[in-house]
């Protein structure tokens, strides 16, 4: 990859004020990259292979690559890969794929430059985000809240071969998914600054929630090219002047740590969390009535316990944050005692009714003397 001059880059940035190119950001789990002052251009073929690599696709069409430049990009932007001797579920990051269509602005409008500038993107990039639920231990979900328009596609993936995949409703209630669906740019307010703000949200999730994110921004669908069988074109790095720096702190505090004992719980508490720290922060360490344990692959939940009120009494806690007293035992005991006494009363009434409806014995009738006639 070769660099061009700043003057050429500035001229190019002005020429693409109404761009038909695509942009790709790769945010790996736990990795903090320094801000770059240049962006690497690539073609649709390489971008499609990078997306497939990040999704873990092992099809021969994607694996039989010998071009050194493509292999170099795959190694740099391909994301987390399964090690030679395997990895535990807790080491395998969850993966988020977000595609936003309809951005026709210039690359210079971004506060955070993309990792890859995809020139002349093809329609095949629209098919790289398909979700297949529960495929060989890979649980994939198509997240589609009602308020999100058709220009946004969100896929969430996690890996767990030991247990069945969680239902869609529980996945959509995860704090990280709620944060993404709340901050993803919509078609009506699609801008370079808005996409950069959303990118900071993904960076925050990468650092705190063990999530590997991929953000693909495409132009209007009508500007996408039909795929052609041609040789890979040589890519070059285009140095660009950085826009004014922006704060790196996300604009939301859903995942902010709070270790104080009077931490207020959210109104809706999800059952599962994507990391132990998220579980502890959101539930205030299970309200001190339990602990966060691994429940489903790399997902965590509160395991509630008991507290001793006095030597002869303990309280069992329940709820997603162990915030409720579990009164199931008291209820069952009360119900059993109530049913028992109800049965006794009903049996007694029934016995008295049966006794009253029986005829008197004949012995009693024989001992009764009728009136005598007077002489």
Describe what is shown at a glance.
The protein contains 10 helices and 13 strands. It is of the alpha+beta class.
Features:
Vps3844_C; signal; Archenteron_Induction-Rel; 375 residues; three-stranded antiparallel sheet; transmembrane helix; elongated; disordered N terminus; alpha+beta; transmembrane; eight-stranded mixed sheet
Written overview of the protein:
It comes from Knufia fluminis. The protein has 375 residues and is an alpha+beta fold. The protein folds into two domains: 6-239, no CATH class; 276-325. Helix content is 30%, strand content 20%. It is built from ten helices and 13 strands. The chain has helices spanning 6-15, 44-55, 60-63, 68-77, 168-172, 175-183, 192-209, 276-283, 328-357, 362-366; strands at residues 22-27, 38-43, 94-101, 116-119, 138-143, 152-159, 211-218, 237-239, 290-296, 299-304, 306-310, 313-318, 324-325. The protein has an eight-stranded mixed β-sheet, sandwiched between helices. A hairpin with an 8-residue loop joins strand 5 (138-143) and strand 6. It starts with 5 loop residues before the first helix and ends in a 9-residue tail after the last helix.
Strand order of the largest sheet: 5-6-3-7-1-4-2-8
Helix content: 25-40%
Specify the oligomeric state. Answer: single chain
Helices and strands: which structural class? alpha+beta
Shape annotation: elongated
Number of helices: 10
Determine the mean pLDDT: 73
Q: Secondary-structure element sequence?
A: HEEHHHEEEEHHHEEHEEEEEHH
What Rg do the Cα atoms give? 33 Å
List segments where confidence is low: pLDDT < 50 over at least 5 consecutive residues: 1-17, 230-262
**What is the number of independent domains?**
2
Name the beta content range.
Answer: 15-25%
* Count of DSSP strands: 13
How is the biggest beta sheet arranged?
A: 8 strands, mixed
Ends distance: 145 Å
InterPro entries: Archenteron_Induction-Rel (IPR053065), Vps3844_C (IPR024382)
Protein name: Vacuolar sorting protein Vps3844 C-terminal domain-containing protein
Keywords: Membrane, Signal, Transmembrane, Transmembrane helix
